[in-house]
Specification:
The protein is of the alpha/beta class. It is built from seven helices and nine strands, in the order H-H-H-E-E-H-E-H-E-H-E-E-H-E-E-E. The chain binds S-adenosyl-L-homocysteine.
Length: 210
């Protein structure tokens, strides 16, 4: 089967699981996930699963990618930040949804590999940064949408301060028990509103060296 057809099936499964935003579904139907994986794993690229990308890290589930982006995209979509580029898959999906996307990664080798993976996709509106996601990306702030792809124990302050008025951020938060939940943070005129969504499993957010 061609990758376009397996992707179309994946998008149908995402619809069945409740993803509604056509911009998000289109983006997941467009980005070839197999180019972000090593050859030995590429045949499993369209299974709804997290797969290893080296350095103890994983590529996110397509459903979780869709769910997180859908939760923070406004209408119209604005400037977005991803924390935890990893192999670059979610960054590529985001670049098909938002007009301007920044993605930050703390492991140099992964940052460089993501750059190589993304070359062929020619996404002129995506910029990769090497650094500590706990600090966000001050030079490009504020962001209308922030997606964090690694689990922290508490909400990073810098990220909240880089959230635009009316903006939304989604991140996995880890409790002491080790359980994780997606948390949605919205900045409105009246301040910050926090709500809890699905239980998830992400790799931990590490203190950055960069
Ligand atoms: N977004 C990826 C998934 C990446 S896994 C995808 O599309 O599949 C999470 C990534 O977050 C890892 O690459 C890890 O190195 C990175 N990470 C962890 N802590 C970080 C931090 N403080 N700053 C930036 N990146 C971080």
């Amino acid at each position: 089967m061609t990758s376009a057809r397996t992707r179309a099936r994946m998008v149908e499964r995402l619809r069945t699981k409740g993803i509604r935003d056509e911009r998000v579904l289109n983006a997941l139907g467009t980005v070839p996930r197999h180019v972000f994986l090593e050859e030995a794993l590429a045949s499993r690229a369209y299974e709804d699963d997290a797969l290893p990308i080296g350095f103890g890290q994983t590529i996110s589930h397509p459903f979780v990618v869709a769910r997180m982006i859908e939760a923070v995209v406004g209408s119209p979509a604005g400037k977005a930040l991803e924390v935890g580029t990893g192999c670059g898959y979610q960054a590529a999906v985001m670049a098909n949804v938002f007009p301007e996307v920044y993605s930050i990664e703390r492991i140099k080798e992964l940052h460089e590999r993501a750059r190589r993976n993304l070359l062929a996709l020619r996404l002129a509106n995506l910029r990769l940064a090497y650094g500590d996601g706990y600090k966000g990306l001050e030079r490009a702030a504020p962001f209308h949408s922030i997606v964090v792809a690694a689990a922290a124990a508490r909400v990073p302050e810098a990220l909240v301060s880089q959230l635009a008025a009316g903006g939304k951020m989604i991140l996995p938060l880890a409790a002491n028990s080790g359980e994780q939940r997606l948390v949605l943070i919205e900045r409105s005129g009246r301040g910050l509103k926090e709500s809890e969504l699905d239980p998830v499993r992400f790799v931990p957010m590490e203190a950055g060296k960069a």
